[in-house]
Amino acid sequence: MLSFFKKVLLTSALIVSLSGVSFANQSIVIKGSTTVLPVAQGTLEAYMKSNPGVQMSLSGGGSGEGIKALLDKTTDIASSSREIKKEEIALAQKKGIKPVAHVVAFDAIIPVVHPKNKVSNLSIDQLSQIYQGKITNWKELGGEDLKIVVISRDSSSGTFESWDHFVMKKAKVTPRAQMLASNGALVTAVSKNKYAIAYLGIGYINKSVKPLQVNGITASMQTATSKEYPFSRELYMYTNGEPQGQIAKYIAFVKSPEGQKIVAKEGFVPLVEVNKPGKKK
């Protein structure tokens, strides 16, 4: 599994290519979601190893930025942690773009706090009240008398959009919230602040933060797949029309048993049950 620090680096921008190799019509550009980034990175590295004539580049920036790049024809694949919006589809049609969705993994959005926080379970309503700024102290939730520091993803993030769908229901996030640009940045912020709360994709959970139950349900590969966990979602790669050539082969690889083992290794939920490989030493 990618180290925590490597994931943090990935959330800004990551360019991966074969040095000194350039083959016409054998390049793939991937842009978009920082949540999907570890899955894209792991599968990209494995695919290039098996296909040394292919040059690939990968960058984050958020689901919205990835879809915008697809519509602007500056990427071959847009990775996204949310479905494409109706207005994005309408704009795509005007530009002659035909977005096609490819589900590559499942995910669960998990609220997290500092490991020393005594709170272990919150309801959806309590999370909404926290993020609206209506609940402001952990003692209101059975915790210590500490002011809650609210941390959120920025509005270009698909995870932010999903949080709005699952939790906020179009209610506004408090203006006091810290809006950060990546999952990795949220992990760092919460791990260093015992007052904080944030939310992460399941693949970013590590020992530096404490995941919370939601409505008494623990997020896991099983509860995410069954949708028993209330904040479960699909992760996507979008292409302009049905993919062809190396793009089609790469997406097929991501969905293959080998690719899905990489999904599981990165801490996300594979499309089908696979034997999860051990962590790299």
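the 2nd protein, sequnce then structure:
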Amino acid sequence: MAAPEQRQGVYMISVAAELAGMHPQTLRIYETRGLIAPRRSPKNTRLYSQEDVERLRRIQELTTELGMNLAGVERVFELEQEVERMQRRLRSLERQAERAQAELQEEIDRVRRSFRAELVPYEPPGRALVPSGPKQGAVRVRIARPRS
């Protein structure tokens, strides 16, 4: 038999309360406060997932070990969601920046390749392959460059 998915509601309230080390009434209070949202069976029975149980343990840790009240716990969860949302946004922006950088590098390479055809190496006087200055019978060729 396959293990249940993390978010699939499989535990009844008594089992979830025992796994989290709480009284079932405490789970009902947390549900009323919006700290936990168990799934419901077709007969409207609360079904808690493994993710819900872990969240209950986290609430327990914040309230007992750190001395937070439920309003503080709510705020911690809100801030954790905000941080998670911002991290997703940051990863998205990093991917966009990487794509833009790659596109810019490709454009720089393309421009460099296009200039190579137009560049003529400089040769100091007297070392040129073709002597400078007008010679009898020399032909001048005009190079037409496209205007931009």
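Helices lie at 13-20, 24-33, 50-65, 70-116. The mean pLDDT is 86.
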